[in-house]
Automatic annotation (TrEMBL):
It holds the Pfam family DEAD. This is RNA helicase. It comes from the Eukaryota. Residues 99-200 form the Helicase ATP-binding domain. PROSITE patterns: HELICASE_ATP_BIND_1, Q_MOTIF. GO terms for molecular function: ATP binding; hydrolase activity; nucleic acid binding; RNA helicase activity.
Amino acid sequence: GGRDFGGGRGDGRGDAGGAREWGENVRGYDDREVEAMFEGHKNTGINFDKYDDIPVEVTGKDVPDAIENYSDCELHPAIKANIERAGYRKPTPVQRNSIPVVINNRDLMSCAQTGSGKTAAFLLPVLDRMLSLGGPPAEAVDKGPYAFPTTLVLAPTRELAAQIYEEARKFAFRTGIRCVVIYGGAENLRDQFRNLERGC
């Protein structure tokens, strides 16, 4: 059988079977860089009201209802704060329909145009789930210098992997969750592995 994640919306302090807690308002090694990312990538030029006219087709059994606002789902306060920092005022169609599906621990496949918010559509609920379940098991962290990844995102190209990584850093800002990117064909592969070993 699969692992039962439960349906509760925790605050990062719940019992996760001896897991360490992710930090709350943790200042990280790259705070200034991430703060600059927020400033440089505000969604100010996009008219999100026009997104309401985009048709959406949702299939599946007992599909969770779409949300109208980010406040419609009980996201962790740190995630909500990062949504505000990013200048996201209302969810795009792919986010409105995808976030509740992922929050309810359901499988999801979504297709939408570039710039429609697909990355945030899965990252926001995944990071929320990580915070509600707590950090890696204490015994895994205490065994030595090796990483214990709790979430793995695969991407077909180096460019997309780098874009997802930057978005993940932005939405994981001050949560204690550390994001790392690894991709092949690069001269700095050893540095990437070292970065992974420091934990993520």
